[in-house]
C-alpha cells in the first residue's frame, strides 16, 4: 500500500474541453510514453468544477463519466433521451462522454466532482461515505476527497486526517480494509484493465 496526500494548493486548473469553464484537476493518469498529457492520452481524471450557469457539457468520445454534486443543490442533466437527477448533493450519476447533455440549475450554482475514464482502460466508481463504518477496497487506485470539512479515515490499522478539500491517494496492490472514522468523504475508485 502506498498513500500520498494531495493538497488543494497544489491542484492544477485547466479549461473544460469545450472551453465553457475551468476545472480543478485533483488527480489523473495518462498513457505512458504519450508525447502530451492531453485528452487523447487520458486514462482517468478526478476533478472538481463549479457549474454557475446552464450550458452544454463537453463532447468526450470514448470517455465514461461519473459525477456528484458536493456543494449546492438542484442540478439536473438533460439529454435528448433521459434526465440525470442530481438535485440532492452526494448523488452519483453515470453517463458517457458521447451523450449530448445540457445542465439545468434549479437553485443556483453548484460544485461537482467528476471521475472520468477512457472506456476499456479503467473501471471507475464514485461514492459519498457519510456514516462511520468499514468498507473493503479492492486493488487499484482510490482517492479519498474531503469534500465538506475535515474527515478521518482508517486504512488497515493506520489513521489519516484529511483537511477540507485535500485528498488522500491510495494505491493498493491487494485488497485492504477502509473505514470512515468521522466527517464525510467522497471516495473515487479506479481499476486499470487490460
TrEMBL record:
Pfam families xrefs: HutD
Record SUPFAM superfamilies: RmlC-like cupins
Domain of life: Bacteria
InterPro entries listed in its UniProt record: RmlC-like_jellyroll, RmlC_Cupin_sf, Uncharacterised_HutD/Ves
PANTHER family in alphabetical order: PROTEIN VES (PTHR37943)
Name this polypeptide is given: HutD family protein
The species this protein was found in: Bradyrhizobium cosmicum
